[in-house]
From TrEMBL:
The keyword Nucleus does not apply. GO terms for cellular component: cytoplasm. PANTHER family: GLUTATHIONE S-TRANSFERASE OMEGA (PTHR43968:SF6), PTHR43968. Keywords: Transferase. InterPro entries: Glutathione_S-Trfase_N, GST_Omega/HSP26, Thioredoxin-like_sf. One of its GO terms (molecular function) is transferase activity. This is Glutathione S-transferase family protein. Residues 1-79 form the GST N-terminal domain. Pfam families: GST_N_2 (PF13409). It comes from the Bacteria. SUPFAM superfamilies: Thioredoxin-like (SSF52833).
Amino acid sequence: MKLFYSDASPYSRCVRLVIRHLGITGIDEVITNPLDNGEDLLEVNPLGKVPCLQLNDGSSLFDSEVILRYLDCEFGEGQLFGIREHNWIGESHFSLIKGLLDSADALRQEQMRQEEGKRSPFWTGRFEQALLRGLQHIEQTGLAMSRDLSIQQICLACLLEYIDFRHGELEWRKVAPALALWLSEFDRLPAMQATRPK
Ligand SMILES: N[C@@H](CCC(=O)N[C@@H](CS)C(=O)NCC(=O)O)C(=O)O
């Protein structure tokens, strides 16, 4: 199998963490800048986005959620997502974190527009507020406190470190101090250190 990923992409990092956590071998990780519009990526994902997992039969899986569910189902016996029918609240927490990843990514796009003098204060503020509100909500659910490693925790760690990487000015630790403490522990995992955004 072949995983198209980029080092900066938090969605790619979630997948790379799961590969390491489940001890999956036989995936060739191919670093790819989606903005280059390389033929290799466009052939497997018409959206031109990473991550994308090409299976051994040539077919491909995207986006990150589909890849994560596939890996958990095929290699993890569902240990990360759990049994869907019985965990609707957990599913919503996953959706919240995924939505926050989208807000952080959209905020990055605003940041890039600033270089062209086209940043929108309205959208910048809206994405920032969504991030702060969402993290405060996650803090209150206590999901980071569970001892069992879940897909929510993996994606949350990727989200928080992506915010630090791209949006250091966002003072999220003030609204979610328990998450900050949790991240400082979680960050010690070898898989976290091996997949730092750059
Ligand atoms: N919903 C997608 C989002 C993937 C995504 O937006 N990836 C970014 C990198 S962080 C990308 O490839 N951007 C290129 C583009 O938007 O054209 C997922 O969960 O995989």
